[in-house]
Amino acid sequence: MIKLNNEFNLIDGLFTGSEARELLSTLFTDKMRFHTLKNLSHKERLGKPDAHSEERIQKLEKTHKEILDFLKNSNGDNQFEICANIIIKPIS
């Protein structure tokens, strides 16, 4: 039997502030790059921007800044637990 929902663990661990910044910045940067390339491709093919990608880039930039601000204001000795799961659901 095929499971309809699949959940996968992406991040689960303790990180220093600098490790957390590096890890999360890499994830957010890659996701923003994905949407930037998708938007450029959409513009070339259809002559107009991809509204969804533009919206996602703005939201990702805002969240990325909030995370960096949070981590910047923490004590240098702090550790952070970061947990992130990926849930994949087939859409018919």
> Got a strand count?
2
Cα distance spanning the termini: 18 Å
Which percent range fits the helix content? Answer: 55-70%
- Described by the principal axes of the CA atoms, the overall outline is flat
Query: Which ranges are low-confidence, i.e. pLDDT below 50, for 5 or more consecutive residues?
Result: none
Please describe the biggest sheet, giving its number of strands, its sense, and whether it closes into a barrel: 2 strands, antiparallel
**How much is the radius of gyration in Å?**
17 Å
Lateral arrangement of strands in the main beta sheet: 1-2
* Mean pLDDT across every amino acid position: 92
Q: What order do the helices and strands follow?
A: EHHE
Which structural class do you get from the secondary structure elements? Answer: alpha+beta
Percentage of residues in strands = 15-25%
Number of helices: 2
How would you sum up this structure in a few lines?
With 92 residues, this protein is α+β, with helices and mostly antiparallel strands. It is 57% helix and 23% strand.
